[in-house]
Amino acid sequence: LNPRPQCWEANVLSHERVRKISFELRREIVDLGGVENISELRLRKKIRKQRADSSGQSDVPEGPVGRQDFLIAAASGKIKVIEKFLEDGGDPNTCDEFRKSALHRAAFQGHVMIIERLLDKGADINFQDRLDCTALHWACRGGRLEALKILQGRGANLNIRDKLMSTPLHVATRTGHSEVVEHLLASGVKINAQDREGDTALHDAIRLNRYKIVKLLILAGADMKLKNAVSTAGENENGRKAWVVFSRDDFRMSSIPYSMYFRRVLQP
Known about the structure:
Layout: H1 4-57, H2 67-76, H3 79-87, H4 102-109, H5 112-120, H6 135-142, H7 145-153, H8 168-174, H9 178-186, H10 201-207, H11 211-219, E1 242-245, E2 262-265
């Protein structure tokens, strides 16, 4: 018999044992190192968070705050930088080349403290950018309900229009923020307001498949027969109609009787 196969098998088994021991040792080392790495990462994350909080709330620039820094601070929520700019006599209506002001930026991001501080210092609540959008338009675009409520409480015009003749309701509908739409409807905005193309919020909701908003608008009494440049609210460009089903829950807070279970609206 040839002893070589047996020797070869023995060598293979020996190598496998060494490999197994090596693998287990390496895994143990990795595991221990992993625990240390996790602890280190957690510590670093905590330090970064503390620094971020400190930079946003405590670190006040020693020198004057420039226009660009002021606008960036409004978007990033750095209230101390905003206060420093205003205390130094800065104009609360300071804006960029597109006339987008600090109030617009804060409203879009939902920084309510900055919104209140700017308004307290005299910021124009209906200040319009180059597209005639106000802070209310920007709050609706960002889906910032609390910002919307603050602006509304300070006297913002809920039916103000931009260059496309779009109201905040149009903007909230197009961006799909149903909670904002619901609040605007509850506040009594002009539900059938038409933009430059003749579109109502219902036209926009149907075209963009915002089915929840379609329901909200219909239950609030949106006119389905108003025509835009192409069709009625209940039709698409080809005049095709479809059915949208309402559940019993949809009618609990509505004056529409439950017997009107089906309503004919567009499904593009």
